[in-house]
Specification:
single chain; 284 residues; 2% strand
């Protein structure tokens, strides 16, 4: 087994086992969802201290780009998820699955909501930093050593989606509405294509900050969408919008497809791509 493949396998086994254990131990507790966000960084920490030589640990963590803000793509990281989720909830309203709530549009209310949105985005970015250190900071570059960067984006996104399966199929507090065998594949498919967007941000900046910001923006957008509508059936809404919705998947798939086809960061000279793919990753 090649070194990058063994590193990916060990990381994923730890992260998936952590989430599986949470789903089994706390199937009806909301805290299991929050704790699962700590699984990827926990796996990276285990790898750092158990399999990485002492002299190379600093280089490993330096490779995550924590000292680079990646602020040039922050607007994309924030706005794209909000637009994708917003379009999905818009489809739900057009189809009659949900109705818009009445909203207070006074200056005071709008100002409060704007401040609340910024605060929520910042908080979510910090919460999901631990996840993205694992998925895009650690796993993605190693998968890129094994295959092309477009395929690596999809593979890492698929792995990220499957990581959620214990919470979806065993626990009852994650994406709780809808038939499990419909919700589960839809979530995996959506996160697979979302992985393309996350990988694009990573390859543009080699920093986990914009990726975690985008991840936080996704969850914030779903929260805003759910708060903005009144659904006749939560199950029907889950099938159209939310993380398991067909409209959500289509919106994410369109963006992911465009990036795969046209993103300049993935259209470089093949020789350069091969050089990047074969560059050693600093681990023990």
């Amino acid at each position: 087994m090649s070194r990058p493949l063994s590193e990916v396998a060990v990381y994923y086994a730890i992260a998936f086992s952590f989430t599986l254990g949470l789903a089994v131990a706390l199937p009806h507790s909301d805290i299991s969802v929050l704790l699962s966000a700590m699984a990827p960084i926990t796996a990276v920490l285990v790898v750092t201290f158990l399999t990485t030589r002492r002299g190379q640990r600093r280089a490993l963590w330096g490779s995550f780009g924590l000292r680079r803000s990646g602020r040039s793509v922050w607007p994309i990281a924030c706005l794209a998820p909000i637009l994708m989720a917003g379009s999905a909830y818009g489809v739900a309203v057009l189809l009659g699955v949900a109705d818009l709530r009445s909203m207070d549009i006074t200056l005071g209310a709008v100002t409060f909501q704007a401040v609340n949105l910024l605060t929520t985005l910042a908080t979510m970015a910090v919460i999901f930093l631990g996840e993205e250190i694992g998925w895009r900071g650690y796993m993605l570059p190693r998968v890129q050593q094994l295959t092309g960067r477009r395929r690596a984006a999809l593979v890492t996104g698929f792995a990220h989606g499957c990581f959620h399966l214990p919470l979806i199929l065993i626990a009852t507090t994650y994406d709780p509405f809808g038939h499990r065998w419909i919700v589960a594949p839809m979530v995996v498919a959506t996160l697979t294509m979302a992985g393309v967007f996350y990988a694009y941000l990573w390859d543009r900046t080699h920093s986990v900050w914009p990726v975690s910001l985008a991840h936080g923006a996704v969850n914030t957008a779903f929260g805003l969408g759910a708060a903005a509508v009144v659904a006749g059936s939560q199950t029907d809404l889950a099938y159209v919008a939310d993380e398991s919705g067909v409209a959500t998947f289509l919106a994410v798939a369109v963006v992911g497809g465009l990036l795969l086809a046209r993103a300049p960061v993935w259209r470089r000279n093949p020789a350069v791509t091969a050089t990047v793919r074969n560059r050693p990753v600093p681990v023990g």
